[in-house]
Amino acid sequence: VAVAGTLNGAVPEYSLTIWHGFNLPLLMSFVALVGGVLIYGLRKWVFRWYEGLPHVDSLDVFRRVIREITAGARWVTERLENGSLQRYLMLVLVSSLVLVIYALTPLEALSGPVALTPLDIITVGGMVVLSLTSLLTVLFHRRRLVALMVLSVVGLMVALVFARFSAPDLALTQLSVEVVTIILLILALFFMPDRTPAESSSLRSFRDLILAGGFGTMIALLTYAVLTRPYDSIASFFLENSVSGGGGTNVVNVILVDFRGFDTLGEIAVLAIAAVGIYGLLKGLHLPHPLRDYGGRLWSTDSHPMVLGALSRALLPMALLISVFIFLRGHNLPGGGFIAGLITAVALILQYISHGVTWAQQRQPFSYHGVAGLGVFIACLTGLGSWLFGYPFLTSAFDHFHLPFIGEFELATAMLFDLGVYLAVVGSTLLILSNIGHVSQDESCKEVL
Predict the structure, then answer these.
(1) Which of 202, 276, 340, 406 measures 20 to 30 Å from 234, CA to CA?
(2) CB 108, CB 221: distance < 8 Å
(3) Do 224 and 357 share a domain, yes or no?
(4) Helix (H, G, I), strand (E, B) or coil at 292
(5) What is the mean pLDDT of the chain?
(6) What are the residues whose beta carbons fall under 8 Å from the beta carbon of 441, sequence distance 6 or more?
(7) What is the pLDDT of residues 129-172, one digit of tens each?
(8) How far apart are CA 94 and CA 82, in angstroms?
(9) Exposure pattern of 297-310 as b/e (b: 16+ CB <10 Å)?
(10) How many domains, the chain?
(11) Hey, is 401 helix, strand or coil?
């Protein structure tokens, strides 16, 4: 009764007896008793044996274990993190290659049920040009300027690929970023040798060739396996709600300034912070400029050719007009604040290249710090404005208005946010590129670039 009350249920079957016969538990008990008696009888000999053992300090043991672990960690670190970026990249590529091969192994077939898009002569031609320019970049990588020019063709072909597959916004962005990147690299390469020394042995070059070929093949197979299989996409949501939810027919721009405006706000904030950081690193830095090229020839004494200066001044208003056009049409057609900002930045930085830092800054007295900060501030202010009307942060609104002689037109708060993006891109880009020009001045601020 007591057991049943404690268990609150049926009592399991059990049996209590004094003698269970000769079995393993009885044998174990007998061994334990005999062993205890023997140890007690031989206790003096056991104590003398223990006292004869060498003294062991547990603290010394702990310290030795820590030293061995540290030495092992140092050995692993020296072989994995030896300061070579080439080694790091090799380890990343090999690890990725092994993991992807392991993931693709269970597939019964590499090809899925989705049919591939038929090839056409334009696509094949673009693929051939892209492959050749990539190969030329590798072949001429020791001649930096030549490799940079070939690399720009790779960027142009990527932009054409975006345009070919109905992504005009990406094509414009790629083209604008490519121009800015090439200008940045040209300014930086001015202070570096025209050629790089041979640092890899033939064996290492062959290893890199095998690794690059294997990784490229892996990416191709992985892309093929993914694109030939059906997958769910959220693209239909944006296509259906772009006009009703964001007031624009350019889905890409509506996503950037409306549906995921918070992400864009973070991106322009990071861009502005990075620009200020680069400015801080370059401030007060003066690098000696090379007097001769790699062939021993003197650089031209005409640092700012007249033809280039005249063309840059003529192109400036045209570029600014195109920038405004791209900005205003961005909510309904390919364009937007980011692309327009890059176009404006390229047009203004061209004045630095063609006329020099001093000449350009005398005619552009405003601070690029302030422009970048103002852009981020306007973008934040747009988001805060929605709070005043009881909506979540960065909720956009739009409406249609009618004016005489103009007709009906649309105004959206997303345009103010896009204006912030535009100013942040212009200010950050010019803050970075113009300060590289400062590096090319000597202590007397004499123009050398």
Answers:
(1) 340
(2) no
(3) no
(4) strand
(5) 84
(6) 286, 357, 447, 448, 449
(7) 888 888 887 777 777 778 888 888 888 888 988 888 888 998 99
(8) 17
(9) eeeeeeeeeeeebe
(10) 4
(11) strand
